[in-house]
Amino acid sequence: MRDVSIAGIGLTPVGEHWEISLRDLAQEAASEALDNAGTTAVDAIYVANALAGQISRQEHLGPLVADVLGLRGVEAIRVEAADASGGMALRQAYLAVASGAIETALVVGVEKFTDLVASPRQSALASSLDAEFEAEQGATPAAMAALIMQRYLYEYGLTLEAFAGFSENAHANGALNEHAMYRNRLRPGMFASAPVVAPPVGLFDAAPEGDGAAALVISSSEHARDMGAVPVRIVASAAASDSLAVQDRANPLALEAARISARKAFQQAGLGPDDIDLFELHDSFTIMAALSLEAAGFAETGQGHRMARPEMIGLGGSLPIGTFGGLKARGNPGGATGVYQAVEIVQQLRGVAGKNQVEGARIGMAQNLGAMGGTAVTHIFQPLD
Amino acid sequence: MRDVSIAGIGLTPVGEHWEISLRDLAQEAASEALDNAGTTAVDAIYVANALAGQISRQEHLGPLVADVLGLRGVEAIRVEAADASGGMALRQAYLAVASGAIETALVVGVEKFTDLVASPRQSALASSLDAEFEAEQGATPAAMAALIMQRYLYEYGLTLEAFAGFSENAHANGALNEHAMYRNRLRPGMFASAPVVAPPVGLFDAAPEGDGAAALVISSSEHARDMGAVPVRIVASAAASDSLAVQDRANPLALEAARISARKAFQQAGLGPDDIDLFELHDSFTIMAALSLEAAGFAETGQGHRMARPEMIGLGGSLPIGTFGGLKARGNPGGATGVYQAVEIVQQLRGVAGKNQVEGARIGMAQNLGAMGGTAVTHIFQPLD
Predict the structure, then answer these.
(1) Pick from A57, A243, A260: which is nearest to B67 by CB?
(2) Closest alpha carbon to A377 in A235, A270, A240, A284
(3) Are A318 and A311 in contact (CB under 8 A)?
């Protein structure tokens, strides 16, 4: 296998982009990534998207995106793994370049939620769950998160307040990020008095869906050195699955796919949790942040919530997470989320993260989850020396 | 890059499977492929599907399929490229195994149309076209095929009868195939007197959507030798894109993506059109069969229709096509179609195609198209010596 690096990055702000279409969002992020890499010589395009078929009535995004970029003819594919689509698309591009068949690949994550509002959007989101055993019974992602969170509170004798620190950290970091959907800090008491989404999940536990697009140019490390920007090496790439229906899991508090993919990634990189300088995790809900920290080996079982403190997860903490606001404040652009995570880590490792910079960051890890962890994809990145 | 082979195949009949769910169809085909290969040690699963989100309200098929197979934990991904999903999934599995990161992969194509009937299904199918510039204006795949076919008839001074031979060949081959959706031969005069779908496209020009699933076990050639069945080597794998909207193409009769991917595949294999013993093409409409033959280099521009004769494309002809009935008679199971094509070629090259056998077949080629050729994927296969 060949060594593989990220040679260019691009992204749009996350938010409600009523006036920008799906294709225009994709084009904006992808053009920026190609500019950043200083190339238009792309051999394959990987489009990550979760729900455009149901929301925008547009499937078959591969050739659509290739065409708007002036890259008609280049092979182009869409990867779908719910909110883990972005991580999975990055992984496919990585494998294609590693194989030697593809020299340079473009990964574009794009999601457009605002073509559909309220109830139909929730119904579309629920199609990432098990349709027969969860969604058709009325479950939504927020409802499933509520069941899992209730169980966690019960098992460990906690109240919701234990999770406040995750949300406060995300909003503090999002306030510094001009691409974030929410740039407000949480004032004291706001978390505790938040409206309830699905008990016990409150408004500040749940990440907002937002429109957005992010893109990466992936190439062999050898070739990436000669391109326009500081290359960042992909030192590990791993993915795993879990049962789609949460009811089928022996332990609903164990994110098995997250655990397996993190373990494989650490093995590939020859690293462990102590080596990671920052962790972009999938905080679609605060409970998922706690469970991800546990599954990835950063906390013992049942102890993830204890990390919800600035000295642990803040920009100057022992393990910064959601450094640009995470899903909670930067926003969760569905199938694009995993690409945002990778773009943000590249910014950190290049030292161009501005106010969101983690000082001295050398090794970054991203973990992207689909639905309630049915899919998990873990990548580890390091500057190419 | 490592040498890659197909080690096992499985498929279900194509048809209206009202009583079988999406997950059960996938399981049936995948289990058969694993049995055929004599293994359950799979490192990655690639699910090809075009429309389950809209039709069955089920996205995130990767972990769903992994779970029903008892392979929970194995990384699993869904690939979507409209009706070219199957070919694209095969290509991703090929690259992953070629890279060395994956030893053995399972490719499962599955499509379930009968969860949705008539008008909503046409609307879902239209989402593979350009949503803004085609589908929202009322276009469906059949309407787009009609526009292209009308142009072809005009350019070359033909009548619809020139295409009868494609349909008659498909039905003749489908009549021999127990997995085919339609097993009736076309009697003389039936083609000419068929009801009109969208003028000039008639009932026997248009392939029927059918439920179905097919699966392949893909492994390094070295490993495939030690598995349970005769391995078939993937000697070429290539893909390309074209503009999604047909209106944006300089020549609507040139399938550019098909041409590019075929040329690349021939280059990789060191072969040319004369070396191919059978060609599983994408006859979603008879006009697409003619255009595919031209784009892939088997006929000159404007001459593809001349091949619609038994001595050319029949099982004993110079270039057999649609040997198990093609999309027209075996049926078009959407995202699974490209996997069916590969399974059928493996049956031919193993010499186990029964009444559909092409005598002495040594080299087979498959070309899978998405929508009106926005995506094209070409593979060439040979027995592993």
Answers:
(1) A243
(2) A240
(3) yes
